[in-house]
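Recap from last week: sequence in, structure out.
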Amino acid sequence: MNDKKNLIKPLVAALLAATLSACAMQAPAPAKPVALDNEDWYQIRTEKELFVFDDYATYRDYVKSGTAPIKQNTGKQDGFGRNIVLILKSADQGKDAKTLSAQRFLDVSLPPAQPFYGELRDEEGVIFVFSRYGDMMDMYKIGEPTFSYVDIGGGPEGQRVVYVLGKEEPKPVKQIALFHDKYK
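Predicted structure tokens:
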């Protein structure tokens, strides 16, 4: 019985010391999560350039005025020989391109949010609307959508709107409503 008492006292003391030291150590405050900015992505294709946006307001202003707060040439070309240019909001000036959502989407290093919204305008004025980032990347690579629903004259200025779909996907009622919501 004496052996048990002699064994329990050091064990209790060790557990108490471990508990006290664990309480004394404070866990570092969790880092503030960085906003991914991965809900939407926009592109405008011209004959010679591909303009890439990660900010809807900057995209809309560019569509209306043709001007941008910041244009940053990436020094790269897409698969069709167009120079890739990032169109950035003023707050992004001086930031490393690798940290910007527009570039990270191109580099396939930013997981898209669900739901996702994408838009691409081509030199003919056609507006392509995407609900999946993968479909947008496929079009970036091959130039045309595989499956789509076309709304002739459905754009804000009577443009043709092409809703990019998956195989055997029905009319994209939610995506059409979201598109029209953006252009109210």
